[in-house]
Amino acid sequence: MLSTPEIVSRPDQPFAAIRISLDRGEIPSKAPPLIGEVAGWLAAQGAAPVGAPFFSYLEMPEDGPMVIEVGFPTATLLAGDSRVRTGTIPAGRFATLIHTGPYDGLYEANVALGEWLGKQGIPHPMPEDAPGEYDAALLEIYATDPADEPDPQKWETEVAFRLGR
Hints:
- The protein has helices at 27-30, 32-44, 106-120; strands spanning 6-10, 13-22, 54-59, 66-73, 85-89, 92-100, 138-142, 156-164.
- The protein has an eight-stranded antiparallel beta sheet with strand order 1-6-8-7-3-4-2-5, with helices on one face.
- The protein is an alpha+beta fold.
- The longest helix is centred in the C-terminal third of the chain and has 15 residues, at 106-120.
C-alpha cells in the first residue's frame, strides 16, 4: 500500500553510513547487516541515531553494480573512519511517499514516486546525474524495525527523492 505522494522541505541532515558496491540481487543479503554495524559504530563513538536507518542509492547503472550507503541520521557531523563514512544529506525539497508492506514492494514504490513526479512535471536528479553524491539522493528510510513489528504487512518505509534546493 502506498500513501499519497507529497513534496516536503528538509534541513541539512548529518549521517553516518557504510558505502558498498553490490548487484541488485545482493541488496537483501548484504545491506541489512550493515545497519547493526553502523549502530555499533555510533555507540562506540558515544553517539546515537536521531532517526530510522536508511539506504541511499547513489549509483544505479543499467548494468553492473550499484553503489548504496546504509546508515543513520545523526545529531551532528561526526568524524568518520576507513569503514564508516560521515557527511550531510543537503537541505532541500524531497518528493516522498510511505510504502506499507514487505520490502519486496519497494521497487514498485520507487517507480510509483518517479511516475507521480513525471505527471506533475517535476524533474528530479537521478544517481547517474551526480554519481556518488547526495545531490541526487534516492532514499529508503526504514521507519519500522522488524524486530519490533514481526508482521511484514505493517512495515512502513519512506521513499524519498531529493529534488534540489
